[in-house]
Amino acid sequence: MFYPLASTTWDDAECRALQRVIVSGRHTMGPEVAAFETAFAARVGSQHAVMASSGSAANLLALAAAFWHPDLDWRAGDEVIVPAVSWSTSYFPVTQTGLKLRFVDVEASTLNIDPDLACAAITPRTRAILAVNLLGNPARLDRLRAICDRHDLLLIEDNCESMGASLDGRAAGAWGDLGTFSSFFS
């Protein structure tokens, strides 16, 4: 049996939308992107959405926005708690901004970051917890949100593998101070 790694899923309406963008010459930051950002933010229950070229780029934008935000005062060497199971595109943006990865183990039942271990790993240099909602399965975002609130940390969600997932009726990716998404087929 043959299963293609990727195949097109675009229908005629999507092909026409692509053609409109191509003909307009506004491949980025045009009215179609602005409309998508507004609709996407409303769909996931977020105040804002910014379109990026990929989930990898979105992760870098999220970490860079936090690192260089003037009110957060993050410094090179500060720590971000991350799950031991993820993908390089969750980790690289941490180190690209000069921050340090602080790995904690995952729950065997979900493969997502263990909130108890994340809480125990907090040090005076910790600035954020980066939760990765793995394989369509949200982390225990309610617990992570409470931990971050209690310790004045940012909760950043890499939701690139879990678009459409939710926890307690709230979209995964919208529990954090920053959330990233991807429309890549995986």
The helix/strand class is alpha/beta
- The overall strand count is 7
How many strands, which pairing sense, and closed or not: the largest β-sheet? 5 strands, parallel
- Tell me, briefly, the overall form: globular
How many domains in all?
2
Brief overview:
The protein is 35% helix and 16% strand. It is an alpha/beta fold and 186 residues long. The chain folds into 2 domains: 9-51, no CATH class; 53-180, Aspartate Aminotransferase, domain 2 (3-Layer(aba) Sandwich), CATH 3.40.640.
Structure explained in plain terms:
By secondary structure, the chain is α/β, with parallel strands linked by helices. It has two domains: 43 residues, no CATH class; 128 residues, Aspartate Aminotransferase, domain 2 (3-Layer(aba) Sandwich), CATH 3.40.640.10. The protein is 35% helix and 16% strand. It contains six helices and seven strands. The strands form two sheets. It has a five-stranded parallel beta sheet, with helices on both faces. It has a two-stranded antiparallel ribbon with strand order 5-6. It is globular, with a radius of gyration of 18 Å.
Keywords:
6 helices; 35% helix; two-stranded antiparallel sheet; 186 residues; Aspartate Aminotransferase, domain 2; five-stranded parallel β-sheet; alpha/beta
Task: Describe the secondary structure blueprint for this structure.
Layout: H1 12-24, H2 31-44, H3 55-67, E1 79-83, H4 88-96, E2 100-104, H5 115-120, E3 126-132, H6 141-151, E4 154-158, E5 166-167, E6 170-171, E7 178-180
Parallel strand pairs: 1-2, 1-3, 3-4, 4-7
Antiparallel strand pairs: 5-6
